[in-house]
Write a structure and sequence with these properties.
3 helices; 3-stranded antiparallel sheet
């Protein structure tokens, strides 16, 4: 279930450094839609409209300048060549899956274990290494711990 507080916090942090974001949505029936957004409020509205029926993915780094449509469409998604600077560094923590089960959704127990480990990664880097306060986002099979960065590609 989507948590509006964490969604808003995540989007606010992304838009603070990235003025264009891609949203990709995958429905269980396998349709994909994507769009490039330069307006956080429009993006929030799209998330609210389709978040209950699709898996949602956002870019975490700002792409090179492209026309922003502020709507979902079937346009080509972004690729690595569309980014020249990393504003965020993500750690993707998923369940350790048995051979043959890698493509299955995590069980609640596996998900909670991955989230626990992601919390430990967050604490180690935040408290012991002095990294900035990250965003913590559920990824479906685990969690993403996303730190602010400034890395040229």
């Amino acid at each position: 279930m989507l948590d509006n507080y964490h969604i808003d916090r995540h989007l606010d942090r992304l838009f603070a450094d990235c003025h264009l974001l891609e949203l990709a949505a995958r429905h269980e029936s396998e349709w994909w839609r994507g769009g490039i957004f330069d307006d956080a409020n429009v993006l929030r509205g799209v998330v609210a409209d389709i978040g209950h029926e699709a898996d949602l993915y956002t870019t975490i780094n700002e792409p090179t300048p492209r026309a922003a449509g502020n709507k979902l469409n079937r346009a080509r998604g972004l690729s690595n060549k569309d980014f020249v600077h990393r504003r965020r560094l993500a750690f993707d923590i998923d369940a350790n899956r048995a051979a043959g089960f890698e493509k299955h959704t995590s069980s609640n127990r596996e998900l909670m274990r991955a989230v626990h480990i992601a919390g430990r990664v967050q604490n180690e880097l935040l408290e012991k290494a002095g990294w900035p306060d990250p965003s913590f986002v559920f990824s479906g099979n685990g969690a993403h711990v996303i730190f602010r960065a400034n890395i040229a590609v």
